[in-house]
Amino acid sequence: MLKLDNISAYYGNINALSNINLEVEKGEIVSLLGANGAGKSSTLKVISGLLEPRDGDVYFKDDKITGMEPEKIVDHGIIHIPEGRQIFPTLTVAENLKIGAYRIRKSTNWQNKLDDIFEYFPVLSDRKEQQGGTLSGGEQQMLAIARGLMAEPELLMLDEPSLGLAPLIVKDIFKIIKKINSEGVTILLVEQNANMALKIANRAYILETGEIVHSGNAEDLASDEKVKEAYLGSK
Ligand code: ATP
Q: Residue 113: what pLDDT?
């Protein structure tokens, strides 16, 4: 479904990504792991058109999407939820969600879509009229994910959805990600919480200073001694 073919990307002279080859099949959850600055966010930015690669190509469902405008990439069905839950703090929950639906298919009634979304996120339904900025951190993350779902993505890319959240809330967020996936949305997940990210994923890639250093089946990676030692905080 998604293929990155030998991607290299720079910020000015800074080499953020080198020769990244990565694939995501339809229906999978794929996790992208690595330390701070390894290039995880940059990889998502290349896919969503926010960072133009210097070399290589990105393909989505057989279309070459390299260098396309981010809006066009959204039209192809790729939604990127960036790190830091960029919701609109002074708009209500319902207004934030409505904005997410701006590219919804004409055949879909956005009010029906909103009702579907509230089934996933009952906590947001209770807070429809509350300003986004007054939600708790976990609720804001749910709103960010919910807003992404309003655009009916085929591929949902989440950048560190667990960042700064309490362990119980993180569990809820991961449950929601799993449910979204089970209903047909393919997921590319960036996480520093490697333990959780490997548990939920089918496959994973591990980045180190802009290069992929390990990749494979998530279960195999979770039991690999080298991976355990370097990324999972155990020997
Ligand atoms: P984190 O977990 O800290 O978000 P990351 O794995 O997502 O890290 P990236 O944000 O992709 O890493 O950063 C990869 C490299 O590119 C880092 O060396 C970073 O300093 C650099 N970088 C990222 N954004 C920019 C930018 N806008 N300008 C210059 N350098 C950048």
A: 82
100's torsion region: left (phi>0), alpha (psi -120 to 50) or beta?
A: alpha
Burial class (CB in 10 A: 0-12, 13-18, 19+), 226: exposed
DSSP 28: -
Calculate mean pLDDT across residues 172-195. Answer: 93
What residues have CB less than 8 Å from 184, skipping those under 6 apart?
Answer: 27
Binding pocket residue ranges, ligand 1, CB within 6 Å:
11, 14, 16, 34, 36-42, 192
What's the confidence (pLDDT) of residue 234?
53
CA 58–ligand 1 middle distance (angstroms)? 19
Question: Which is the closest atom of ligand 1 to the Cα of 192?
Answer: 2
Strands 14-24 and 155-159: unpaired
pLDDT score of 216: 96
Q: Are 144 and 87 in contact (CB under 8 A)?
A: yes
Res 146: pLDDT: 92
Mean pLDDT of 172-181: 93
**For residue 105, how far is its CA from the centre of ligand 1 (angstroms)?**
34
> pTM of the prediction?
0.92
Res 55 pLDDT > 60: yes
pLDDT at 235 (0 to 100): 42
Which tokens belong to 38?
Answer: 């390894």
Beta strands 186-191 and 29-33: pairing type? Answer: parallel
**CA 37 to ligand 1 center in whole angstroms:** 5
Say how many Å lie between the CA of residue 51 and the centre of ligand 1.
11
Cα separation values, 145 from 2, 142, 229, Å = 20, 5, 32
